[in-house]
Amino acid sequence: MRRAALGLFGLLGVLSLVPQASAEGNADYSILTISRERLEVATSCEIGVYLDNQLSARLFQEQSTSFNLPPGQVAVRLRLLPAQMPGCQNGLENQRSQQLTLRAGEINKYRIAVDQNGLKLIRAGLGY
Questions:
Q1: Which of 34, 101, 117, 122 is most solvent-facing, going by the fewest CB within 10 Å?
Q2: Mean pLDDT across the stretch 44-69?
Q3: What is the CATH number for 75?
Q4: By the 8 A CB rule, do 122 and 114 touch?
Q5: Torsion-angle region of residue 66: left (phi > 0), alpha (psi -120 to 50) or beta?
Q6: pTM for this one?
């Protein structure tokens, strides 16, 4: 019984030397959330989210997506994706992308909107 108690105390002592994981402290990534929750884009077509020219997410109305990204610059491009629905076929579109600067430990939220140049991102409040 004594041996078991001493063994348990020894194990607890060793575990106290191991550093604890914490949500606080420096984070080496940034969170980017892109939302299509508002009805600002009046189309039933999927919207493709391209990060550095790679398709990274597909969004329908009332959806959002999040990415854990390293800090620095990221190019985000939005485009309507072809689908089986009428009006969602390939066509000419603006191929511009937006450059976003991400800082470590930050949470960035953007919503998708449309203007005369096509789809774009607008910074949104976190709403927590």
A1: 117
A2: 91
A3: 2.60.40.1120
A4: no
A5: beta
A6: 0.71
